[in-house]
Every structure is written in structure tokens, then in C-alpha cells.
């Protein structure tokens, strides 16, 4: 598209914004060193690589480009759908296709249209008012060039495709001839309408779907039923499109439910742009498919085409509402968005919602005048053509009748305007009367409020008297409670019995503490006795000595048997003496062994005691918490018992501290005993190396047997003690839980 602007036709300027935008206009990705900016040579969008991978020839002002240029995905899709449309319906310039359906909406067909067009050509030759026709003829070639150079890229592709069956050198001449016959005849027969460049544009578009005859009838119907007569080119009075704007706004609010906050921008857009959309029937303002949808639905509506066109405008505004609010009052940017982005699939969905609208109810002024110089019968267009005869007298009579009708309508309009003024005066009077009624109502309300206040005061006094009665009843209830308390003394005695049970439980706990103290004293005594004992020899040495001792015993038994056989009495005595000595030594070793085992056993017991001590401390803490809970939950009857429990708890804690000190002393004493035993072992080892012999082996073996027996006995005793302690602890816990449940 050329950088210069169109001279005659209305179009939307597409600026070359390459290098001025930061993001792709299709996907929104930001342009960077890796994401390069490109330009679609058809719609001039700034796009990225992914959104414009296509290349194709593009229509320019001087014709189709020789080289293939970059095409965005949106244009590629729209261009492909345009080609399918042309092939499917076999669209060709100056041939009937969709015009057959459009003519049926106005009560005619192609055969009648041909007869009417031939009659119109004859009538046009007799026309005397050729001023509009002369202007049209003088500017036709320039306007066609303007159309070829400045229609938008989508309409350009369509027009060039419709002319594909015409030789390229003859295309302009063919287009000029057809438009001259159709629009020229129209202007000669209806000079009152006047000439405008939009007539050429509309005729050009209609000829792409219709023959010259059909295009002429459709052009006549458009100016008779669709374009408001106040917008005819020759009309000199200003027209503000008050009704048309009101209808579009009403459809937006009711059928399309647009937010009222958005209406200010939409109304501004309509006030500036609606005239252009109505005069051009939206040609050159949208993509081809959108324009075709609008014009086809308008023509299919017949005499209601004007309302349908306004409904289409409401749908277009709703689809562009977000962009309108974004651009505010920069309506040129909104127009560019509507041209590039709006398609038929969006338009058709919302258009269905407008079918049930009452358009007449949206009008601000209910009487509008239409030029009767172009009356078209909806059911029979041929009848309208038969009325136009060369007889000038009949024409003058018809014109006189039409003028009389216009005068009558003007008078009716004046009457209606007077009625409107009277109605407005009545409305003002009613408003005044309404205000008076409101004031009266307020006065009545004030009196009502006063009466209500008096009633409330009376109610307040009654409430006070009721409150005093309730106070008296409360005092009576207190006296009754005191009497009831005397009656419920047996129940209190029951609670005292529960407290006595609780005291018994506490006595059992104290007895358990006494037992625990006695056990600790016994353990202390045993630990003092262990100070005189020796440490146990190593397990490995004892096993070796045991083996040697067993071997020597066997040898001695053999020798005794041999000596008895030999009757050697002296040797037997010596052996007996040796046996007695060994037994004495074994007894000593047993004592030492027992002492070592006791030390080890007591060490284990001390470890157990420490563990028990920790458990008891934890149990003591838990009991203290329970005592606190019992103290908070129990009444005045159990307060003294809780104090006793707290004192006993303190005694327990002090005794536990003493027990801990005793255990530490025992541990220190045991360590001292170990050190002394080590010294004794070193000294005894020297003596044993010099004196021990076979007797020592026997003694060690006997010591081992005695040691095992002692260990078994001590373990049983300790296990019994531990079980007693554990059972006592469980009993104490059960007693505390019972006491707590009883208190609750």
C-alpha cells in the first residue's frame, strides 16, 4: 500500500511501525537479539519468526508483486479462506451469484430485475436533471483509480480475484463501463439523492456478486431502505444520528450486556465514526469476510436492513470494547484493530443475540422523514419502474401527490412534537406533585416515629418492673438453695468417705516408700561387705586353670587307685593331707570368688537402682502435676488432704536426694575396692607363681563352680526384688488414678 492517502474514498490508514514496537503483535513475545522482528507485507504487522514463516505474492497499488514476501499466519489463514470462498461460489465480476438470494428479500428476481433495468435505462435518457450525473461521470475514472490504490489489502485481494476472468489490460475499462451504466442510471432517475464517492464504491462491490441489472435494483433498495435519507449526499440539513446512536447503545446494553462504565468511550466512537460505517455499508473498513457477512445479512433482511446494520455495528463495538477502553479516545487505533482482527466466526455468534431486540423502543425521536423520491415497493419492484413513464404530466402529478404527503407528514410531525412538549410539561407537574407527596410522607413518618418512641418508653418502664420482679425471685432462689444445702448433707458425707479412701491410698504410698528405703539400706550393707572381697579373675585364665585342674584330678585319682592296690599307706596319707590343703584353699578361693561376684552383681544392681531412681523422679514429677490438678479440681473438703500429699511429695523428693547421695557413695567405695583388689591381685600373683601347683588348679576349678552357683542365686534374688519394686510402682499409679477419678 502506498504511503499517500486516498483522495475520495474513506479508508483506514495503516502506519508502518516497524522498529517502533517491542513485542510481536500476534503472540506478544518480546523482540530480542534471538527473536528478530519482521513485518507482514500484507497487513503491516510487526511479527516474530514463528508468527510469520509464510511467503507469498502480495497485492500492491500497482498490481501483484513479482517477488514473494513475508506473510503472517493470520493473513495466510484469511487469504486461504478467501480463495476457498471464491472457488466454492464461483464469484466473478458482473455475474449473478449471491444477488439471486438478495433480490428475493425485496420481492423480485433476476428476470424481473433485467426488465426493470432496461426500463430504467430508457427513463434515464429522458431525465433533465443531470447535475449529479455530470459530477459522477467527470470523477469516475479518478475514483476507480483511488479504489484500486487505497482499498484495504483484503478487499483488494477479493476484487482482483473477482476480475480474474477479465484481461488485465481491460479490467479498468470493464469496471468503469459497468459502474457508469448502473450508478449513472441511478443518479439520472434519482437526482434528489445527489452524488457521492460511496455510491461508486458500493456499486463496485455489488457488481462482484451481481449482474448490472441486479446491481441496479440492489443499489436502489439500499438507498430506499437501508441508508437513512438524512445521510443522502444532497441533503443540506445537519443530522446528528440521534436515533441510530440510541439503537446501537440500546442493543449493547440489553442484548450484549456491555458494562455501563464502558459506554462513554463507545458513545464517543459512535458519534465520530458511525456516519462513515453507515454511508459505506462498512466496505473498506473491515476484512472482506466481515464486510460480506454484514452486507449479506443486511440485504437478506429486506426493508428491515437499516435496523440489521445498526445491530451489526453494536456487535462490532462489543467485540472491540476491550481495545476501545485501552485506546480511550484514540479511535484511529481502534479502527485499525477492527480492520485487522475481527472475523466472521466472532461476529456470527453475537449477532444471533440481537435478533429479538425491539429497535423501535430505543429511538429518541419516533418520526423520521425519508425522501419519497425513491420509494420502492418491498413486494414488487417492477411496479415501481412501471410508474416512471415518459409522460411528464403523470410525473408532475405524482410529484404533487408526494409533496402533499410530505406536507401531511410534516403537519403530523408538528402535532406529535407539540404532544411531546405537553407530555414533558405533564411530567414536570407530576414530579412536583411527587415531591409534595414525599414531603407529606416524611411528616407522617415523623409523627409515626414519635408515637413509636412513646410506646418504647412505656415498654421500657414495663421491662424495669419485670427486672425488679426477677431480682426478688433470685433472692428467693438463694434462700431455697441454702435450705437445699442443709438437705444435701448426706451427699457431703459421701464425699468425705471418698476423701477417707483417698487418705488410705496415700498411706499405701507411704508404706511403699518405707519398703523402698529398707531395700536401699540392705543394699548399702551389702556394698560395705564387698569392700573386703577380691576381684574376679579373668574369664580366660579361669577356663585354662579349669582344664589343667581337671587333668590333674584325673591323674591324682589314678595314683590313689594304684596306691590302694599297692597298700602304700604313707603315700595315701600324704595325698589325703594334700587333698585337705586343697579343700582349704578352695574354700578361700570360693570366698574370694563370691566376693568378686557380689561386687559385680551389686554394680549391676546399682545401675538398676539409678534407672529406678530416674523413673521415680519422673513418677514424682507426674504425681506432683496430678496433685496440682487435684488441688485445682477438688473442693474445700479435699484441700487439707492435697496439702498433706504435697508435704509427703516434698519428703519423697528429699529422700530421693538422700538416696542419690548414698548411691554416689557406694559407687566411690566400689571404685576404691577395685583399686585395692588390683593391688592385692598383683601381690597374690607373685605368691601364686611361687607356691601354686596342682592344688591351686583344683581350687580354681572349685571356685568357678561355686561362682556360677552364687551368680545364679544372686540373680534370682535381685530379680525378685526388682519385680516387687515394679509391682509396687504399678500399684501406686493405680491408686493415684483411682483417687483422681473419685475426685472428678
TrEMBL record:
Residues 18-80 form the FYVE-type domain. GO terms for cellular component: cytoplasm; microtubule organizing center. The chain crosses the membrane at residues 174-193, 199-224, 276-300. Residues 392-676 form a coiled coil. GO terms for molecular function: dynein light intermediate chain binding; microtubule binding; zinc ion binding. It comes from the Eukaryota. This is FYVE-type domain-containing protein.
Amino acid at each position: 500500500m502506498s504511503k499517500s492517502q486516498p483522495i475520495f474514498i474513506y479508508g483506514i490508514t495503516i502506519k508502518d511501525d516497524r522498529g517502533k514496537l517491542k513485542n510481536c503483535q500476534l503472540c506478544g513475545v518480546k523482540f530480542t537479539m534471538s527473536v528478530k522482528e519482521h513485518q507482514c507485507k500484507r497487513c503491516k504487522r510487526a511479527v516474530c519468526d514463528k508468527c510469520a514463516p509464510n511467503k507469498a505474492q502480495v497485492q500492491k497499488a500497482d498490481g501483484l508483486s513479482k517477488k514473494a514476501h513475508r506473510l503472517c499466519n493470520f493473513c495466510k489463514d484469511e487469504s486461504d479462506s478467501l480463495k476457498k470462498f471464491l472457488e466454492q461460489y464461483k464469484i466473478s465480476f458482473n455475474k449473478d451469484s449471491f444477488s439471486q438470494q438478495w433480490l428475493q428479500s425485496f420481492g423480485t428476481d433476476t428476470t424481473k430485475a433485467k426488465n426493470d433495468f432496461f426500463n430504467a435505462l430508457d427513463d434515464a435518457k429522458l431525465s433533465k436533471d443531470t447535475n449529479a450525473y455530470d459530477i459522477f461521470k467527470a470523477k469516475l475514472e479518478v475514483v476507480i483509480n483511488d479504489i484500486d490504490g487505497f482499498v484495504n489489502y483484503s478487499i483488494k485481494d477479493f476484487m482482483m480475484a473477482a476480475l480474474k476472468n477479465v484481461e488485465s489490460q481491460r479490467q479498468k475499462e470493464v469496471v468503469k463501463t459497468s459502474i457508469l451504466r448502473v450508478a449513472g442510471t441511478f443518479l439520472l432517475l434519482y437526482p434528489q439523492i445527489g452524488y457521492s464517492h460511496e455510491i461508486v464504491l458500493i456499486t463496485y462491490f455489488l457488481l462482484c456478486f451481481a449482474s448490472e441489472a441486479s446491481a441496479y435494483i440492489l443499489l436502489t433498495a439500499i438507498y430506499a431502505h437501508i441508508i437513512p435519507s438524512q445521510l443522502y449526499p444532497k441533503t443540506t440539513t445537519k443530522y446528528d444520528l440521534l436515533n441510530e446512536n440510541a439503537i446501537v447503545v440500546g442493543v449493547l446494553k440489553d442484548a450484549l450486556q456491555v458494562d455501563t462504565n464502558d459506554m462513554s468511550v463507545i458513545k464517543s466512537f459512535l458519534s465520530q465514526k458511525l456516519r462513515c460505517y453507515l454511508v459505506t455499508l462498512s466496505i473498506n473498513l473491515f476484512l472482506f469476510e466481515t464486510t460480506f457477512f454484514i452486507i449479506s445479512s443486511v440485504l437478506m433482511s429486506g426493508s428491515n436492513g437499516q435496523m440489521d446494520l445498526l445491530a451489526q455495528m453494536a456487535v462490532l463495538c462489543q467485540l472491540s470494547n476491550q481495545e476501545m477502553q485501552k485506546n480511550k479516545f484514540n479511535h484511529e487505533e481502534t479502527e485499525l484493530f477492527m480492520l485487522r482482527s475481527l472475523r466472521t466466526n466472532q461476529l456470527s455468534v453475537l449477532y444471533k443475540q440481537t435478533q429479538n431486540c425491539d429497535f423501535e423502543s430505543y429511538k429518541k425521536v419516533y418520526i423520521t422523514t425519508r425522501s419519497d423520491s425513491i420509494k420502492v415497493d418491498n413486494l414488487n419492484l417492477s411496479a415501481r419502474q412501471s410508474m416512471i413513464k415518459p409522460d411528464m404530466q403523470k410525473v408532475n402529478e405524482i410529484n404533487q401527490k408526494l409533496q402533499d404527503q410530505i406536507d401531511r407528514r410534516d403537519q403530523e410531525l408538528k402535532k406529535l412534537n407539540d404532544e411531546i412538549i405537553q407530555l414533558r410539561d405533564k411530567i414536570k407537574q407530576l414530579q412536583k406533585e411527587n415531591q409534595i407527596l414525599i414531603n407529606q410522607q416524611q411528616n407522617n413518618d415523623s409523627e409515626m416515629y414519635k408515637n413509636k418512641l412513646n410506646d418504647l418508653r412505656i415498654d421500657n418502664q414495663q421491662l424495669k418492673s419485670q427486672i425488679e420482679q426477677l431480682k426478688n425471685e433470685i433472692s428467693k432462689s438463694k434462700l431455697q438453695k441454702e435450705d437445699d444445702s442443709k438437705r444435701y448433707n448426706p451427699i457431703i458425707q459421701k464425699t468425705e468417705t471418698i476423701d477417707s479412701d483417698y487418705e488410705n491410698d496415700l498411706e499405701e504410698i507411704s508404706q511403699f516408700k518405707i519398703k523402698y528405703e529398707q531395700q536401699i539400706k540392705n543394699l548399702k550393707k551389702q556394698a560395705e561387705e564387698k569392700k573386703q572381697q577380691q576381684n574376679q579373675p579373668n574369664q580366660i585364665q579361669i577356663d585354662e586353670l579349669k582344664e589343667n585342674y581337671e587333668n590333674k584330678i584325673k591323674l591324682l585319682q589314678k595314683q590313689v587307685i594304684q596306691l590302694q592296690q599297692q597298700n602304700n599307706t604313707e603315700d595315701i596319707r600324704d595325698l589325703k593331707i594334700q587333698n585337705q590343703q586343697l579343700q582349704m584353699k578352695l574354700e578361700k578361693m570360693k570366698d574370694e570368688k563370691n566376693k568378686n561376684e557380689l561386687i559385680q552383681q551389686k554394680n549391676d544392681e546399682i545401675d538398676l537402682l539409678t534407672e529406678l531412681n530416674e523413673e521415680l523422679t519422673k513418677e514424682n514429677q507426674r504425681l506432683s502435676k496430678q496433685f496440682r490438678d487435684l488441688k485445682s479440681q477438688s473442693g474445700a473438703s479435699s484441700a487439707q488432704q492435697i496439702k498433706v500429699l504435697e508435704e509427703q511429695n516434698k519428703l519423697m523428693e528429699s529422700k530421693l536426694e538422700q538416696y542419690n547421695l548414698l548411691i554416689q557413695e557406694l559407687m566411690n567405695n566400689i571404685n576404691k575396692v577395685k583399686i585395692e583388689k588390683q593391688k592385692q591381685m598383683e601381690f597374690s600373683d607373685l605368691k601364686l607363681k611361687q607356691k601354686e601347683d596342682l592344688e591351686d588348679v583344683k581350687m580354681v576349678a572349685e571356685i568357678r563352680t561355686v561362682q556360677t552357683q552364687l551368680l545364679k542365686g544372686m540373680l534370682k534374688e535381685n530379680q525378685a526384688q526388682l519385680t516387687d519394686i515394679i509391682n509396687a510402682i504399678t500399684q501406686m499409679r493405680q491408686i493415684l488414678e483411682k483417687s483422681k477419678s473419685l475426685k472428678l
